[in-house]
Design goal:
CATH superfamily of the largest domain: MetI-like
CATH class of the largest domain: Mainly Alpha
Shape: flat
CATH architecture of the largest domain: Orthogonal Bundle
Number of strands: 0
Number of helices: 14
Number of domains: 2
Length: 326
């Protein structure tokens, strides 16, 4: 319990530091969204309207400590401010629209890649010298050496533009009405096949090789020799003893990958014009939308911290040695 509380305190401190940096950095930059909007309309906004805009965006002439506590108060109520590019839409609303698409695409792709790659690594280590170990692992490592956006463009050209099997862009067809219908879900799935496959193919080899190398080291330990000496079934030895002990590094990496899911697969979303958070981040940077950038960075940071805390709890459950030192 003390271990959990220590880790929780560490992550709460890191979250507070992230919130503070998220507040300070935009205010150190020259200008603000309201002034940029004022310049965009070439002075057609009255000075009174400019003051109102600055207040709406959280850039006032009040002392920094007053602005800081106002900023924290708004965060606690879920108010991330107004988006400049999508004005007057709230940042939370804009992020929410992209978050669902990113979780559906990148989240599912990461989970599939981790599960399949880890299992392939277990089988490759258990059957060393077989085709999984000698042929599939190098092939996946070779594919993983290519940038994932290049694989995305290749898949788009071959299966979208060349063969016409899959759509070229967006998350669903414009002539399909969004809703909880089989037609809409099937169309969304069809649009997600190419971007999700490119992410899975690019990352599968890393999970497989990581699990394979860790498990090979575990197979030479006394614990495995004792399990074999007891006459336990090979399947039980492979999964319960070898795979479970070798799983911890992959679980840690999975937590990091899952946390960064919310940042979206940036370049893949750009290639396919997929409306996820990565695509939103590019638009926010391009339009100098500071509130939206702040909101996205904050969501990504908190997601990474939450994922790492969940991994710490999972490792505490998987590894008895951690519980003994906790």
């Amino acid at each position: 319990m003390r271990y959990v509380l220590r880790r929780l305190g560490f992550y709460l401190l890191a979250a507070w530091a992230s919130l503070t940096m998220n507040f300070v950095i935009p205010r150190l930059a020259p200008g603000d969204p309201a002034t940029a909007m004022f310049a965009r309309f070439e002075g057609r906004i009255s000075p009174e309207a400019l003051v109102a805009l600055k207040t709406a965006f959280g850039f006032t002439d009040a002392p920094w400590h007053v602005q800081y506590f106002t900023y924290l108060k708004h965060l606690l109520t879920g108010d991330l401010g107004l988006s400049y590019a999508y004005y007057p839409s709230p940042v939370s609303e804009v992020i929410g629209t992209g978050l669902l698409w990113t979780l559906g695409l990148a989240g599912c792709a990461v989970i599939i890649s981790f599960a399949v790659g880890t299992m392939l690594g277990v089988l490759a280590a258990w059957n060393r010298g077989g085709w999984l170990d000698s042929a599939l692992a190098p092939a996946l490592a070779f594919l993983g050496a290519f940038p994932y956006f290049w694989l995305a463009m290749l898949a788009l050209y071959l299966f979208g533009f060349g063969l016409g099997w899959f759509p070229l862009r967006h998350a669903y067809s414009h002539d399909v009405e969004p809703g909880a219908t089989l037609t809409f879900l099937a169309d969304v799935g069809r649009h997600a096949v190419l971007p999700a496959t490119s992410i899975v193919v690019a990352t599968l080899g890393g999970w497989m090789l990581s699990m394979r190398n860790t498990m090979v080291a575990v197979l030479g330990t006394d614990t495995l020799r004792l399990a074999h000496a007891k006459g336990l079934p090979p399947r039980q030895v492979m999964l319960r003893y070898a795979a479970r002990n070798a799983l911890l590094p992959n679980v840690t990496g999975f937590g990091m990958a899952l946390g960064f899911v919310l940042s979206g697969s940036l370049l893949t979303e750009i290639v396919f014009s997929y409306p996820g958070t990565g695509y939103l981040l590019i638009l926010a940077v391009r339009n100098q939308d500071y509130p939206l950038m702040q909101g996205l960075f904050l969501v990504i940071t908190l997601a990474v911290l939450a994922a790492n805390f969940a991994v710490d709890l999972l490792c505490l459950w998987l590894d008895p040695r951690t519980r003994a030192h906790a």
